[in-house]
Amino acid sequence: MLLYILFFLMFSALAIRDVIYKKLVNKALPESLILLFVVANIFVGLFLYLFVFERAKIHNDFKNLINIEHAPMIIFSSIVGLLFTYYYYIIIKTEKLLFVNLLFALYPIVIAIAGYYFLNEKITINEMFAMIIIITGAIMLQYFKSVKK
Questions:
Q1: Does residue 24 have a pLDDT over 90?
Q2: Reduced to 3 states, what is the DSSP secondary structure of residue 61?
Q3: Per the CB 3.0–4.6 Å rule, which of 3, 43, 52, 131 could disulfide with 48?
Q4: Single residue among 76, 94, 112 that ends a domain in this structure
Q5: How far apart are the first and last CA of the chain?
Q6: How many domains does the chain have?
Q7: What mean pLDDT do residues 91-116 have?
Q8: Are residues 21 and 88 in the same domain?
Q9: 6-32 burial, b for 16+ CB within 10 Å, e for fewer?
Q10: What secondary structure letter does DSSP report for 54?
Q11: Same domain for 56 and 28
């Protein structure tokens, strides 16, 4: 039960975050917001590092993560994350937040397919059925959006 409450709180917080993004993106450039949130994340991360996290464990992890093998993956992930955050800000400026986030429901499908190809993860029949439902919903959203115009 506690897990469901935590998921509800997390999704509520993420929903509020997206509403804040939508309000702010109409008042500032996406570039400014990205830099503002990067700086804010640095301060939050620094606070957590200093007062919450176990620093010894983090130091050991950093010794393992910061090397030539992981550097391209970390840099690529950061670039992709920032580019698509920028795209997200651009698209929520012109589209309804509900519509944009429902289309982002396709994201888990892309993750499942990438996991299948790159990590040899198996996709069950139930998961495949759920993906078909999500894709159908996204197609219906796009169809009804275009019919309304």
A1: yes
A2: helix
A3: 52
A4: 94
A5: 43
A6: 2
A7: 85
A8: yes
A9: eeeeeeeeeeeebeebbebbeeeebee
A10: -
A11: yes
Q: Are residues 123 and 69 in the same domain?
A: no
Amino acid at 143: Y
> Do both 102 and 114 map to the same domain?
yes
Tokens 């012109």: give the residue: 94
Residue of 108 and 28 predicted with greater confidence: 28
CA separation for the pair 95, 22 (Å, rounded): 10
- Host H or E run for residue 24: helix 2-25
120: left (phi over 0), alpha (psi -120 to 50) or beta: left
Domain around 83: 17-94
Q: How far apart are CA 77 and CA 88, in angstroms?
A: 16
In a domain, 117, yes or no: yes
98-118 b/e with 16+ CB inside 10 Å = b?
Answer: eebbbeeeeeebeebeeeeee
pTM over 0.70, yes/no = yes
